[in-house]
Design goal:
This protein is mostly beta strands. The protein has helices at about 10, 15-25; strands at about 40, 45-50, 60-65, 70-75, 90-100, 110-115, 115-125.
């Protein structure tokens, strides 16, 4: 006897329906805003942050650091030239925030935008090492 396996698409992707509901915001098939995916990698000397922003122009991306919080925001606009039949790609505003470690020098953060990927290089703060103070090394003794 052969068994037939029927796959329910809602069980295969249980959060797909909720994702669709949140993305459409109750306005039909129009998508407002999106959350771009972020990767953060750590090397010995720096943190590397990559954010996928296909179709976003670098001129509309805003990067700010305030109180050890890195904020990236911007928007992607649609190029509506004809009546839309299907709209699945998200458009609108986006914002992502990341908390930076204490001691990061925000002036040394480098940003590059290539092939729809924003890449931030954040140097790690220099480790604070205890300063050793030698006793009487090259100094006059204290006189009474």
């Amino acid at each position: 006897m052969t068994s037939l396996l029927i796959r329910d698409p809602f069980l295969a992707a249980p959060f797909r329906l909720m994702d669709e509901l949140l993305r459409t915001s109750g306005n039909g098939n129009r998508v407002n805003g999106f959350t771009p995916p972020v990767d953060v990698h750590e090397t010995e000397d720096e943190y590397l942050v990559k954010i996928d922003l296909p179709g976003v122009k670098s001129e509309v991306v805003n990067i700010e650091v305030n109180d050890n919080v890195l904020a990236i925001s911007g928007s992607r606009v649609t190029d509506e030239t004809a009546a839309a039949q299907l709209v699945e790609r998200p458009y609108g505003s986006f914002a992502r925030t990341l908390t930076l470690p204490q001691g990061v020098d925000s002036d040394s953060i480098e940003a590059a935008f290539r092939d729809g990927v924003l890449e931030l290089r954040i140097p790690k703060p220099a480790e604070r090492k205890p300063k050793k103070i030698a006793i009487g090394a090259g100094k006059k003794a204290i006189e009474k």
